[in-house]
Structures are given as structure tokens and as C-alpha cells.
Amino acid sequence: MKPCFDRIAVLGLGLLGGSVALASKQRGLAKCVAGGVRRPAALEAAVARGIVDEGGSFEDAVRGANLVVLATPVFAMVDLVRTIAPHLQEGALVTDVGSVKAGVAEALPGLLPRGVHYVGAHPMAGSHLSGLDHARGDLFDGAPCVVIEGAPEAARDRVSVFWTDLGARVLPRDAATHDGEVAWMSHIPHILAFAFAGALKAAPPGADEVAGSGFHDFTRIAHSHPELWGDILTSNRKAIAAPLQSVAESLAELGRAIETGDAEIVERWLAQARAALSLASSPPAGNDITRRVRTAHSRGLNASPGSAISAAEVGDPIDPNE
């Protein structure tokens, strides 16, 4: 594959940032993949593992970059962009991996110099494991990646091509819709897992000895990093409020059904819940961005370094990427 970028700078080399860098190198998406870090030891480890070609401070990493990927916690992104903005070259694109979009989508574009565009993204991939040691080049294979609307179409298309090249399935959303949807599909499940784990202090002594696969499946995500999830949940608190109330009401309703002692009532409730889960888990129908990206790839239209893919270049829609 012809490199799409001269230089990709990934700022923050944890699980997601490290995986973006590694996948970019393995798939030949850039002539150079640079890492931006605060600690020299992290850069040394990333270079030794072949995750990045070179790097340094955030400012050093972005110099000459056509694409900058922000892979720091959401709360740090505004200050980070203020720091790197003077060092961004004209025509560069800035994307990110943040789990909450409304705040950064509003704040970041105004901090960028003329000719530099921010295209928000959120790859729905990850693990309860964290850190560079767990970075994987295949982390994004088949994963949904939301690309936020609002930037010029050419910039969105080029960022969409990038995420598609990393193996993801691109979905367009505006920032508010994204935050509402991930509140349901990601943030509430984590809240429930953490809440259950917090309640375990009331479990009888020795209960852990009978924990089976159901317990471990349910609590796996409660092993996630508290600092990261504290940032995510407070950043998206407005979007979380309504679904959290709905889940509380649903749990209370199930509790009342159980209290009746009538197995048929409980069975009907559980059957309705399972049916609702089946609907929520049905495959997505695809989208125009993914169709255009697939058309571009089928015609061999990788963007050259420093250029953007226009609507005319990507052609007509084809079948959804499913």
C-alpha cells in the first residue's frame, strides 16, 4: 500500500495510541510514525518494540506531520492542542480517540491555526488492560469507529480512509448523537459493572470461591482504569443521566417481578429483555462515509501525502461495509 501520509504523529502511547501507531506502521500508512510522550522511557520502549519510528515531546512529534492523533485522556486534549498548535504545518489533520465528543468538538477547532482541521473520531475498541505493553496492531479490525461530522468533507473523508485502513468500520455521527449513543452502549455497562463490584463488600465471606464464568464475564470491564473512566463518566455526565435513570427503573421493575414469586411473570420480563438486547445487537446498516471509502479503495484512490480526497474522487456509494 502506498503511504497515505508522510508523517503521522501519535500523541500518547497507551493502549489506544500505541495500537494506532503499531497498526499504522504494520499497514504502511505513513513514511514515518512518530510518538509524542512526556516520559523518555515510554518512547524508548515504543521504538524498541517497533511501535514508532521516532519521537520526542509532543511539540517535536507534530513537526512536519500530515496527521496528528490525540490519544491522551479527554480532559487533557484542550491544553495539549494549545501546546502543539504553533508547531502544526498548514494542511495537517488532527483526529483523536476520545470517548466523549461534544466538549472537544466545540473547543478544539478554534485552537488550531488556519488550514488545519480537526476531525473527531472514537474507535470503539479497547480492553480493560491498559498501557503500551498491551498495544496490538489488530485492535481496530472490525471495530466501529465514529467519525464526527462538522469538518470539511475532504478532511472527513481522509480521516475516514485512515480509520478504515486501520481495519475499522466508519460510522458518521454528530458529537451530541455520539455522546448519547455511547452513554448507552459503553458508559452505562461500565457503570453497572463498577457498581456491582462496589457492592461486593456486602457479599458473604467465601462467596468468591463460587464465582464462575458469568461473574468473570460481567465484572471484566470493572477492572478498567479508574482514572480513565472517572474522566469519561464525568465528561459525559449530561448524556449519561437519562439512560442511567432508565436502567435504575428497569432494575427496580425486575426486582418487583421477582418479589411476586411468580416464575411466569419473571420469565416474561426476561424474555422481553432478551428480545430488546437482540434488537440492539443487530448489525448496522452501513453509511455513506464507509461506502465512499470502500469505493475509493476499490479504485485504488489512496490520498497522496498532503492531499485530500474529494467527493468527486471517491465516487458513487456501493454496498455497506459489513
List keywords for this structure.
322 residues, alpha/beta, Rossmann fold, 6-phosphogluconate dehydrogenase C-terminal fold, 2 domains, 6-stranded parallel β-sheet, 3-stranded mixed β-sheet, 13 helices, 9 strands, 12% strand, disordered C terminus
Low-confidence stretches: 296-322
Strand content: 5-15%
CATH topology description of the largest domain: Rossmann fold
Main pleated sheet: 6 strands, parallel
Structure, explained:
Strands 3-2-1-4-5-6 form a six-stranded parallel sheet. Mean pLDDT is 88; it is low at 296-322. With 322 residues, it is α/β, with parallel strands linked by helices. The protein has 13 helices and nine strands. It has helices at residues 15-26, 40-48, 58-62, 77-84, 102-107, 153-165, 175-199, 213-219, 226-235, 237-259, 263-280, 288-298, 311-314, and strands spanning 5-11, 30-36, 54-56, 67-70, 93-96, 117-118, 121-123, 144-148, 169-173. It is elongated and about 70 Å long. The protein starts with a strand and ends in an 8-residue tail after the last helix.
Give me a quick take on this structure.
It contains 13 helices and 9 strands. The radius of gyration is 22 Å and the shape is elongated.
Which helices and strands occur, and which strands form pairs?
Blueprint: E1 5-11, H1 15-26, E2 30-36, H2 40-48, E3 54-56, H3 58-62, E4 67-70, H4 77-84, E5 93-96, H5 102-107, E6 117-118, E7 121-123, E8 144-148, H6 153-165, E9 169-173, H7 175-199, H8 213-219, H9 226-235, H10 237-259, H11 263-280, H12 288-298, H13 311-314
Parallel strand pairs: 1-2, 1-4, 2-3, 4-5, 5-6, 8-9
Antiparallel strand pairs: 7-8
